[in-house]
Amino acid sequence: MSINGHGRIAESSDIDAEQFHPGYDASMRKLGRERGWPAPTREQYDLLRSPRGALLVGNPESVAKKIRFQYDIFRNTRYLIYLMGMPHDTVMRAIELYGTRVAPLVREGLRQRGVDSTAAALAD
Predict the structure, then answer these.
(1) Is 19 exposed, middle or buried (0-12, 13-18, 19+ CB in 10 A)?
(2) CA neighbor of 31 nearest in space, from 84, 70, 81
(3) Per-residue confidence at 114, pLDDT binned at 50, 70, 90?
(4) Model confidence over 27-62: pLDDT tens digits?
(5) Residue 73 · residue 115 · CB < 8 Å
(6) Range of 20's domain?
């Protein structure tokens, strides 16, 4: 099973959250208009990026922690993060952080739980 979600990874969670919000908000407003949904609020965004929310927005440690938390609930074997609403260089840096910092933290956290990280390829 795979979990697919929106997100952004950067060195600082607070700066990252502020920089990601405008693009996320614009995308959700556009989708909402097309689908008849109400406009999103900042409060909803903050809840979605909280530890139990759906968005993966933050530094590598907080993102890895959320992936492990979701694994504990769903036992998913994949995680696909959609990096939207960002300049190309920001996307490339997020991909780099995912591979060099998030993935190792997820694998290590799973190993500590006794999970075979080759069976649960969440961070490949």
Answers:
(1) middle
(2) 84
(3) confident
(4) 999 999 999 999 999 999 999 999 899 999 999 999
(5) no
(6) 2-112
How far apart are alpha carbons 90 and 96 in whole angstroms? 10
Specify burial of residue 4 (Cβ count, 10 A radius: 0-12, 13-18, 19+): exposed
Cα–Cα distance between 2 and 75 in angstroms, integer? Answer: 9
119 domain-assigned: no
| Per-residue pLDDT tens over the stretch 73-103 | 999 989 999 988 788 999 999 999 999 999 9
Inter-residue contact 68 to 114 (CB < 8 Å): no
Packed helices 60-74 and 103-112: angle between N→C axes, nearest 10 degrees: 40
Altogether, the residues listed in the chain come to a count of: 124
For residue 20, count CB atoms less than 10 angstroms from its CB and return exposed for 0-12, middle for 13-18, buried for 19 or more: buried
Count up the domains in the chain and report the number.
Answer: 1
Q: Which amino acid is at 67?
A: I
Between CA 9 and CA 63 the distance in angstroms is 7
In a domain, 50, yes or no: yes
d(CA 120, CA 89): 29
